[in-house]
Structure formats: structure tokens, C-alpha cells
Amino acid sequence: MTRTRRPHTRLRSAALTGTAVLAAAALTACSGGSQADSGSSDAKGSEQTKVSVSATGQQAKAGEPVKVTLTEGKKLDSVTVTDTKGGVLAGEISADGKSWTSTRTTSPGTSYTVEAKAADATAAKSGFTTAAADKVNKLTMAPGKGTTIGIAHPLSIVFDNPVKNRAAVEKQLKVTTSNNTEGSWGWMMDYSGKDRVDWRPKEYWKPGTKVTLQAGLSGVDSGKGGGWFVRDYRTDFTIGKNQVVKVDLDNHRLKLLRDGEQIKDVPMSAGTPGGKKASWRGKTVLMSKEGTINMRSETVGLGDAYDKMVDYSMRMTWSGMYAHAAPWNAGYFGNANKSSGCVGMSDADAKWVYDQVQVGDPFEVTGDDAKGTQALNNGYGNWNVSWADWQAKSAL
Question: Domain residues for 84?
Fold first, then answer.
């Protein structure tokens, strides 16, 4: 950042004496003389604020807190550290009033202005710029901001680059709920192969809960191979209706329960048991309502078995398990599992279910006609892990 020199401003620096000691520059009051000359009784006899700042120059080290130390004077009245985008680096004055330390660290490639004022003294202003990051990490969050979702949807974050400093990152992820919902973060490798962390409640969300995530990651180092975060993130969402979809593989039925009461029971046909075409069981979460889509068997490792346009498609896993309309399988609805892994229904039943369900609704799939339990990262398999095991996945 270019700094404008003003009259009566003196800058001096202290040499770096070790890894725990940062270079410091002294700040003195800007234009203190002009205030004294104005004739104001408050300004007469006013001293210049003199402090040292831990970060200096155009290549200051990022990811460090800023410390402002009073070198002359009684006590610090105030210290403000702002960046060029208007962001404020919050901090606290020490009990003795002799120093101020930011509660957040500096972000790479960012210019900051420091303004400090001691008691009975005029304010001083200076600035510094942090070195740019060699690599920047970003993230994708779900659910989306301002959405209303079902009672089983976790708060999920997928990172562009690896996160080795998981504890440092997790400390900056603050979840607030309107009813003090108990929950925990859990780390995993996403189905895409990227690092992922989810916040899951101990039990399904209560309808109407309002949830906010504040990810204060600016200035946090991901660790080797991951790079720096250079911005903060925020999202919020609301929990919708209390709905659970129960899929019984062995009896070939799909039931929708709302507030604990069954409101629909439809016949269906799931995946053919005994091989790759079998369905997954476990508590899965409706990831998306995708409508009419093209389904091709080669995308899920089943050769050239099918290539169809499929209506009322509701995604349950990343590996390709859906609930959808399957009129070509009508002869098996309610009596046999003969699909290629999905839960198929009539056009009318699939449309009804599609219209009723919310993204985030749990699909609780039970029965022996399965190829195993849905993996944790294959969509949102969070509910297939016990609460104790889930808490153990936290980095803190």
C-alpha cells in the first residue's frame, strides 16, 4: 500500500531478533501540531501517540496477529486496524493498557491501516501490506444460503485444496442455531477425492431451526499443498418440515412419514440383489431433486445396460442411486427388486413423492436385499455413524 507522508510523522523500525519477535515500526501522531495551533483548549499541550506495530513494510508475514505496543504515554484509548475493503481486524487492549493484539490473523496480499490513540494524545496512523499467497484455497458449502432443507441435511464444506491444518481451520468454523442444537464437525475424504468437513447434529434437526455458519478463514494456512484462505465465508439456512422417507427393500414399499404419521405408502422396485445392481441400505439424505435426466449405465460401471431419459429423479448418493419414475418396471412394483440400483415407482407415485419431499429429507433404507451400507462420503452417509464415532472425526 502506498503511504502518504505527513508533517511531523516519524517512522523507525526495530531489527528482527528471533522467530518469535516481529519487526516493529513506531507510529507518531499525524498533524498534531496543526491541532495545537488551532487554538482548541483540548488540543493545547496534547502529546503525540507513540506506539510500535509488529507488522511493517510491503512484504509483512501473513497469518500472524497484529500487536500494537505503546512506547510512550499512559494507556491506549483505541486501536483500529482496517483493510482496503473496509474489513476490520478485531482485537483487544491489554489490562494494563500498554498493548493491543488482534484476535484475528492477517490475510495474504492485503493492505492494512493502523490507527492508534493513547489517552490525552493525538492519534497516529500508519500501514503495512502482507506478502501475497503462493497458493489460495477456496471452498464450497452446502446447503446453499437462504435455503430451507430437510431434517437430515448436514452442513457440508468441500475444499478445493488439501487441508493439513485441520484443527486451525475447524477452530474458525462457528455454527450458531436458534435452539442450541448439539452437533459436531467430522472430517473425511469427499467422494470427489477432496478434503471435506461436515457439521452434523446429534439427532435430526428440529423443524424451524435457523442455522448460521460463519467461517472466519481469512488469514488461515491450510498447510502443505493447500495454500492460504484469503476471505471469510458465511451461509444460513432453515430447517423445513419433519419428513422421513422409509424404503423397505425386502417388502418393496416406500412410505412417507410427516411429523411421525404415515401419509403415503407406494409400491416400488429397488436394485436387483446379489451383485452390483443391488441398492445401498442405511440412512441416506436426499441430495437434490433433478427432474428429468439422462441415465446411462456406463457412468456407474454397469456397461451398456441402459440409456434412458428418466422423470422425477431424486438423487440419494454420488454413486448414482436415485428414486425416480420407472414405468418400464411396472410388473415388479410391490413384489420384486429388479432395477439397476435405484428405487423405481410408477409415474404417478414418483410425481407425488417428488412434489412432497425436500432436499435434506432422510431416506431410511432397510432390508437384506442390499449390497451393503452407504459409505460416509457417498453423498451424506453421516447418519450411518454412531454419535461417539462421529465426534471422534473432529480435529479438535
Answer: 13-129
